Structure formats: structure tokens, C-alpha cells
Fold this protein.
Amino acid sequence: MEKEDIKELKARTRKVVALLKRHYPDSKCSLNFKTAHQLLVATILSAQCTDERVNIVTRDLFKKYRNIKAFADADISMLEDDIRSTGFYKNKAKAIIKASKIIAAEFGGKIPQTLDRIVKLPGVGRKTGSVVLGTAFGKAEGIAVDTHVSRISQRLGLTPEKDPVKIEIDLMEIIPKKDWIIYSHLLIDHGRAVCKARKPGCSGCFLAKLCPSFDSF
Ligand code: SF4
């Protein structure tokens, strides 16, 4: 594929997103939650852990800690034990308790609804903030860039960057804002089903004609 200008890149990206939507019509966040705070907790737990494992852990966790106050008042050693299997449990427990205390004390028990404010909570970076704002509130303030989104956006030639923040800036430039939330979910689905980290299934990939990395593995 020859080097394309921004107009061509945007047009190709639109086709990519349209095809992804067609193939994954039910694409959505795979973490289980009932409230925005539960999604925040689940997203903190999902760092370096599969959504499947997080869902197993939160099934009991959300029964034991029923609201923000319960997490804010949690005994740290007990919470560490409760979330141990998600990995990095010490940092995660500390972040969940601290963030819950701040939400209860400074935000009247409501999750802040702007990226600037939500990323000030402990354990919440741009990715976690974008997931919570997008999925719980339908607010597109950024694009959540995880390992699938990074890898496939690079393979598709939508960004040459490796740093998630720089990848996000590139993507925000070429993807219409209305698709910022769904884009991450679509790429996660495609990464799990076809464009896997080690063995991408290029031969059966519906994006093959639009992908500069087709069959280059
Ligand atoms: S053609 Fe290959 S590299 Fe490109 S998106 Fe499909 S599976 Fe991934």
C-alpha cells in the first residue's frame, strides 16, 4: 500500500470501522457492572488481567462491598485477599479504597464525568477514565487504548506510535468522535477473534483488503 495522505487515511479508517461494526454488531464492554462505580472498580482490576477473570472476582466482590462507602471503608488486607487473583492486588486495593474515599468525600458519591477530573483519582489513567466515561455515561472524551487497540491500530497503519497516549492522539484525528467509544470495543473483539497478538488470522480476515500488514507475519 502506498503512503496515503490524511484524507485517504480517514476514508480508509471509515471503511475499517464500518466493516468492524458489521462483523461485531453487539460489540460492547465485556466487564460486568451495574453502576459507574462498579465499572470503575472492574476497570482498575482489569489492568494486566483478563476481563473474564475480573468478572469471576467481581461476582462475589460486588455482593460483599455493596456501594462506594463499603469500598471506601474496606479493610485493605481483606480487600487485597478478595482481589488477589487479578494480580498487582496491593496497588489495586490501595487505588480502589483511595479513589472510593475521594469520590465519597469530594464528589458527593458521584463519579466525576470529565476526563480531566476522573484521571485525578488514584489508579485511574486515560484508558480507565475513557472506559468509564464512555461505557457508563456515553461520553466520548477520549479513545481507550489497550493492548488490542494499540496492536491492531498499528497493524492497520492507523498510527506509527507505540506510546498509548500518542496512539490515542493519532486515532482521535482520524476517527469521528461518534465512533470513539465503539472503536475500542470493536478492536478488542477483533483482537480476540482474528487479529491475535501472536498469530493474526490474516487469511480469513474481513479487513485484509484494507490492511497494509496483511500476510506480513
Ligand atoms: S489482515 Fe491480518 S494484520 Fe490486518 S487486521 Fe486482519 S488479521 Fe490483523
About this structure: The CA atoms of residues 6 and 99 lie 40 Å apart. The mean pLDDT is 96. The chain is about 55% helix and 0% strand. Residues 152, 155-156, 194-195, 200-202, 205, 207-208, 211, 213-214 surround iron/sulfur cluster (CB under 6 Å).
